[in-house]
Amino acid sequence: KQEVTQIPAALSVPEGENLVLNCSFTDSAIYNLQWFRQDPGKGLTSLLLIQSSQREQTSGRLNASLDKSSGRSTLYIAASQPGDSATYLCAPWQAAGNKLTFGGGTRVLVKP
Amino acid sequence: EPEVTQTPSHQVTQMGQEVILRCVPISNHLYFYWYRQILGQKVEFLVSFYNNEISEKSEIFDDQFSVERPDGSNFTLKIRSTKLEDSAMYFCASNRDRVSYEQFFGPGTRLTVL
């Protein structure tokens, strides 16, 4: 059974600092991994999809890396802004089963 | 930009009542999903649906739950006899292809069972 862990659970940084969010998963047999953003009481916004054959995927200030063999992904957010304050979730799509398995998220607060 | 929509945004019901949560997936998507998130907990997979049948379901998705695609646009989740522990945010999602394309999520329906 896939287990997904996100560290740290919460992070508070001053505006302008770079953010590093970590995700680890126990079953490396995945097709891809998706990173999401969730604002309080809201839905999930897809940020990046990184395929199992890729090492990195970039979108604007966001960069996600994937090391499938070691069961790790990292989301980097450059030059953080107060608007980046949210919870960030990672979710690998595993080869066995037709579903995403979510981590508990990292709650980010960017202080002006 | 196309998006997944869900109605209602908030549903309050009495324990034992039936509820139907509705979703309109993105129009050219083929795979449909329901997830739920109990307050303060992880997002959990409930069920996936493709070609008018369930392709995968979790242990949470017992006989009290059912899904249906009654027409070409709607995708519904029915809970036959709600329990207090069914109180959660329910998210619908869809994608074009399971492997290559990201899943897009709707804004969710907050279900409160009293």
Structural write-up:
The complex is a heterodimer of chains A (112) and B (114). By secondary structure, chain A is mainly beta. Chain A contains no helices and ten strands. Chain A has strands at residues 4-7, 10-14, 19-25, 30-38, 44-51, 56-59, 62-67, 72-77, 86-94, 106-111. Chain A is globular, with a radius of gyration of 13 Å. With 114 residues, chain B is mainly beta. Helix content of chain B is 0%, strand content 50%. In chain B, a hairpin with a 2-residue loop joins strand 5 and strand 6 (53-57). The mean pLDDT of chain B is 93. Chain A binds chain B through residues 31-32, 34, 36, 41-46, 49, 51, 89, 91, 93, 97-105, and chain B through 31, 33, 35, 42-45, 48, 50, 55-56, 58, 91, 93, 98-108, 110.
Observed structural traits:
heterodimer, A: 112 residues, mainly beta, five-stranded antiparallel sheet, five-stranded mixed sheet, 10 strands, 0% helix, 57% strand, globular, B: 114 residues, seven-stranded mixed sheet, four-stranded antiparallel sheet
The count of DSSP E runs of length 2 or more, i.e. the number of strands of chain A, is: 10
Q: In angstroms, what separates the terminal alpha carbons of chain A? A: 41 Å
Q: What's the N-to-C terminus distance of chain B?
A: 37 Å
- Biggest sheet overview of chain B: 7 strands, mixed
Oligomer: heterodimer
Number of strands of chain B: 11
Q: Please indicate the percent range of residues of chain A in DSSP E strands (runs of 2 or more).
A: over 45%
Q: H/E series of chain B, N to C?
A: EEEEEEEEEEE
Large-scale geometry of chain A: globular
Radius of gyration based on Cα positions of chain A: 13 Å
Give Rg of chain B in angstroms: 13 Å
- What shape does the CA trace of chain B take? globular
How many helical elements of chain B?
A: 0
Strand order across the biggest sheet of chain A? 1-3-8-7-6
Low-confidence stretches of chain B: none
Query: What is the string of SSEs of chain A from the N terminus onward?
Result: EEEEEEEEEE
User: Structural class, from helix and strand content of chain A?
Assistant: mainly beta
